[in-house]
């Protein structure tokens, strides 16, 4: 009986080992994956501080880009615009216009064939990828929340931040009150993909990460799904606290955002079709005026 029991237990252990081996193989595969976009060998260091103080924050010059899976269609078509330092710029356009693509290229998730993009007057290709991405923080349309505590989720913005810094960032992002009200405060588990949070709360966690990172440029992709009026106000308050004096490029779906922007860029089918302030664009009575009537007004 003793021997039979032990053999039974052994076969169970064997099954566990097999499962672990399978999972490890998959993990190792992920960890060894090589990104297709690499640093140029001759550029091992970031542009000097003096260099990174010059010129416009962002400049797109005749950029054309097609997604590798759709080589025939241009997602961006000779796109030219610039964002000066400290400006608050809004991107507006119908669905599929190429707004999120602009962010993907800025963060160098893809390389493009034609045209130039420069960040602080240095071409993207000449930035080491890590320091390039250190210049920007992104608040995505659908923020990613990890199956971890609120504290760890915010600290993802800057891994070396202390608890006090995380809490300060949460306060500026108007996230402190709802986090404190969770059963274990900052130690509360947020659930797989943040299922225990509302859409507005997930966004404020993501804004807190951006504040903690404190980069020169902020990229915001506003959620298309409407937040309830109160969450929207909280998110707006958080942004009003951090955006003034900082360079930001926001994909706008809300009236409050376009009204506060210094400049609005209107994209359609990958092209820049109009630009100006909310009032001047409304007066032009073109695509923006039509979108504004549908979306904001
Ligand atoms: N990964 C991808 N592979 C292939 N095509 C893509 C990919 N991502 C986007 N596209 C295509 O590129 C075009 C621009 O998409 P993009 O996501 O930039 O639009 P958007 O302006 O952000 O729209 P929305 O307001 O709906 O978010 C669309 O025609 C889209 O179908
Ligand atoms: Mg988008």
Q: What's the short story on this structure?
A:
The protein is α/β, with parallel strands linked by helices and 297 residues long. It has eleven helices and ten strands. Magnesium ion is lined by residues 99-100, 141.
Q: Can you lay out the helices and strands and say which pair or pack?
A:
Layout: H1 2-32, E1 58-65, E2 76-83, E3 88-92, H2 99-106, E4 114-119, E5 122-123, H3 129-134, E6 136-139, H4 150-155, H5 163-172, H6 176-181, H7 199-213, E7 217-221, H8 229-242, E8 247-251, H9 255-260, E9 263-268, E10 271-276, H10 278-284, H11 287-295
Parallel strand pairs: 3-8, 3-9, 6-7, 7-8
Antiparallel strand pairs: 1-2, 1-4, 4-5, 9-10
The site of magnesium ion has 3 residues, from helix 2.
């Amino acid at each position: 009986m003793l021997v039979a029991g032990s053999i039974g237990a052994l076969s169970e252990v064997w099954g566990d080992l097999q499962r672990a081996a399978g999972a490890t193989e998959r993990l190792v595969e992920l960890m060894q994956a090589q990104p297709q976009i690499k640093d140029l060998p001759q550029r091992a260091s970031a542009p000097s501080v003096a260099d990174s103080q010059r010129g416009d924050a962002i400049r797109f010059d005749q950029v054309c880009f097609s997604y590798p899976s759709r080589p025939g269609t241009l997602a961006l078509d000779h796109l030219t615009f610039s964002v000066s330092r400290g400006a608050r710029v809004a991107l507006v356009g119908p669905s599929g216009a190429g707004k999120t693509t602009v962010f993907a290229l800025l963060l160098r998730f893809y390389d493009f064939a034609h045209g130039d993009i420069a960040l602080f007057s240095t071409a993207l290709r000449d930035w080491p990828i890590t320091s390039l991405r250190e210049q920007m923080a992104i608040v995505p349309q659908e923020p990613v929340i990890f199956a971890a505590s609120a504290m760890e989720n915010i600290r993802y913005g800057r891994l070396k931040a202390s608890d006090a810094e995380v809490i300060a960032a949460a306060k500026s992002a108007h996230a402190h009150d709802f986090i404190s009200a969770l059963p274990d405060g900052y130690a509360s588990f947020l659930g797989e993909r943040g299922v225990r949070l509302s859409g507005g709360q997930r966004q404020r966690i993501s804004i807190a990460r951006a504040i903690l990172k404190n980069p020169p440029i902020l990229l915001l992709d506003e959620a298309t799904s409407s937040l309830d009026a109160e969450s929207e106000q909280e998110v707006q308050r958080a942004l009003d606290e951090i955006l003034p004096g900082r360079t930001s490029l926001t994909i706008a779906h809300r009236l409050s955002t376009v009204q506060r922007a210094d400049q609005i860029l209107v994209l359609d089918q990958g092209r820049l079709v109009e630009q100006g302030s909310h009032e001047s664009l409304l007066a032009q009575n073109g695509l923006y005026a039509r979108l504004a009537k549908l979306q904001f007004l």
